[in-house]
Amino acid sequence: MTALLRLLFAALIVGLFITGVFYFIASVISSIAFNPASRAWQELLAKLRDRLKKRNEFRAKELADPLLACNAETLAHLSLKPKILKKAGWRDPIFEGIFSTIYQEPVAVFAGQKNGKTSVVVAKTSDKEFVFRQKGKETEVWQNGQPYAVLVDGTLLSSGKQSRLLAKLELDAELRQWPVLLGNNEAATITNLERAVSPIPRAVTLLRNLTAEEEQVMLVLAIIQGLQK
Q: Does domain 34-226 have CATH number 2.60.120?
């Protein structure tokens, strides 16, 4: 009996060791894939883009609801909570979803993968592609394959050596609406998901007319906030 227990204990230890090694290797591979300077990064983006292509082909065939163009009206009705179409699993770590208006009109489809505190998401609107790399409190954004912006602690800065302020979120955990500064004034607010009352909360409230560039900035901020959960 004692020998049997020892054998079972040894088998358990070996099993735990093998499992630990497997997860360590998987973690290392994933961390490499999440590095924008690596070849694995490009392969990951290609995989996510392929998922979006298949998703859009299915939507085009089965659903008569093309993605809405991003404008002031779309932003005013955009829901902060995306609909998850596919959850990540052990065999397939990719998750898929869609951002819609509060009237269930599609605005952007996305596919992503997460490893620890780092995630990569490819989102496609009616005319643009955005890539979001979230690592901790920092989010890097690419637009149509080019560096676009970096969000850190509520401050959205354009990418590049001559970085400029695109937007400033006045983050306050107690507020239901976070003021967004565009230029020198408060131009909009974004809903604090933790304090949202409605089950389908509006993402954005516009306080003035926005330029096309500012509309894109607000869409990017809304998607980043919606992907936090």
A: no
